[in-house]
Amino acid sequence: MRTNNQWRLAAVLAVLLIVATWYCIAVWQATPMPLYGNIILGVAAILVLVSGCGLIALMFYSHRKGYDEPARSNRTTRE
Question: Hey, which of 15-24, 25-34, 57-66 has the most confident mean pLDDT?
C-alpha cells in the first residue's frame, strides 16, 4: 500500500520529467541544425543505449555465472 507521501513524490517527479522534456524539445527546435547533425545525434544516442544495455547484460551474466564471487584458495596459510 502506498502512502500519500509516495504518491506526492511520484507526482513531483513526473512533473519534473515533463518539464525537462518540454524544455529539451523547445531548445532542440530553436537551435538550427542540418539534417546530418540530427542523424549523427540519433545514431550516437542509439549506440550509447546499446552499449549501456550490453554492459548491464554482461554484469548480470557474470553475476549468474559466479565470476563476481571472491577468490578462494586451497592453500593453507603460513604461520
Answer: 15-24
CA distances from 52 to 12, 33, 49 (A): 27, 27, 5
User: Rounded to whole angstroms, how far apart are CA atoms 75 and 65?
Assistant: 24
CA distance 40 to 49: 14
Cell numbers 584458495 label which residue?
73
Instruction: Kindly tell me the sign of the dihedral angle through the C-alpha atoms of 12, 10, 52, 22.
Output: negative
Q: What is the pTM of this model?
A: 0.54
pLDDT score at 48: 97
d(CA 37, CA 34): 5
